[in-house]
Design goal:
Layout lengths: L11 E6 L7 H13 L3 E2 L5 E3 L1 H4 L2 E6 L21 H18 L4 E3 L23
Parallel strand pairs: 1-4, 4-5
Antiparallel strand pairs: 2-3
C-alpha cells in the first residue's frame, strides 16, 4: 500500500473477516450482533464483562479470504471454500454497514482484496474465532 493508512482503530477490535460461498445475509447480521455484544473487555474488577458497546470501542475490519485456507492435504492451501469476490464483497460491505449501524465508536476498514500490512497491539491477549 506504499505506507498509505486506509484504516485504524483505537481501543476495540481488529476483525479479520472471511466469507464462504455458503454465507448469507442473516449470517452477517448475526455476526454483527455477536461482535458488538461480546463481553471481552475488563470491568473495574478486571473481569471480562464489558462489550464493545459498553466501552464505546472502535473497529478495524479487514477482509481476509485466507482464513478459509484448507491445509489438510499437501503443502499448498486450498481456498475452494472461500467465497468468490463477487459473493464476498457484497457480504463484506453489508457486514461493515451493519457494524456501523450498531457501534458508537468508529468503524474503519482495510481495502477489500488488497495486500496490506496490518499492525496490531494486542491488549489481553484475547483472540477468538467466531463462526455461526
Amino acid at each position: 500500500m506504499g505506507g498509505k493508512v486506509v484504516g485504524r482503530a483505537g481501543r476495540g477490535h481488529l476483525l479479520l473477516v472471511g466469507f464462504t460461498s455458503e454465507d448469507e445475509h442473516e449470517d452477517v447480521t448475526w455476526m454483527a450482533d455477536k461482535v458488538v455484544g461480546l463481553r471481552v473487555f475488563s470491568d473495574d474488577e478486571g473481569k471480562m464483562n464489558l462489550s464493545l458497546q459498553d466501552i464505546g470501542g472502535d473497529l478495524l475490519v479487514v477482509s481476509q479470504f485466507t482464513l478459509y485456507g484448507d491445509t489438510r492435504k499437501g503443502r499448498r492451501p486450498s481456498f475452494v471454500t472461500a467465497a468468490d469476490p463477487s459473493i464476498a464483497m457484497p457480504l463484506y460491505q453489508r457486514f461493515v454497514d451493519e457494524l456501523r449501524a450498531r457501534c458508537t465508536g468508529s468503524v474503519e476498514t482495510g481495502e477489500f482484496g488488497a495486500a496490506m500490512e496490518v499492525e496490531l497491539v494486542n491488549d489481553g491477549p484475547v483472540t477468538l474465532v467466531l463462526e455461526r
